[in-house]
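so my prof wants the structure for this chain in the tokens format not the other one, which i didnt know existed until like an hour ago. anyway here's the sequence
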Amino acid sequence: MARRKTDNPIFPAIVLVLAWIVPGAGHVYIGRAARGLIIFVTVTATFWAGIAMGGIMTVDSRTERWWFAADLCTGVNGLVSWYRSKRVYAEVDRELKSGPYAEQFYEDAPNAVGEESRRYYLSSAHRAEVVSDLRQRYVDKILSDKGYRLAAPAETVARAYSGVAGLLNALCIFDAVVLVLMGRGAEPGSTTPQRRKDDREGSDA
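here's what i got, hopefully its the right format
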């Protein structure tokens, strides 16, 4: 008895990966091209509208963990933006180590710890937290000077757009996988090559 391609246990996993990498690709692969195109346009346009408002630092793995997780659900869109933001952060880190802000930061860090120590007992973890907070303020200042950061509410709206795009694609990924598991891949009456191949293999059973 011949088995159809859609009966393969790894087929849902293939659809899941495709639907994540490129929004809508999973639906196109199972024969729902129209739905896949709508998903691609909607998710991609919504995500990049957020990037257009907030800039390349909208996808921020350092300070916006939950939004970042949602952004990565847009697949290649989120990965490209994450790569760009990582490059900017690498440049900022270099400036903070040896650029014009470096000397001031290394002077301010002990002062910040000392001032906090006068008010509270500081554990080693708390000291590290004080320095980390000060460092983040310097990072924000450098990003602002370079024109990479936007003030709220533009930043908030931008992250909402890109994050909602990711959450929308997560639902679309779920939809594509469920359609496969239910054996309802292609549109009813579809004559896509994949459906014709599956029908032929099924008739050989």
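also thought this was worth mentioning. The chain has a mean pLDDT of 81.
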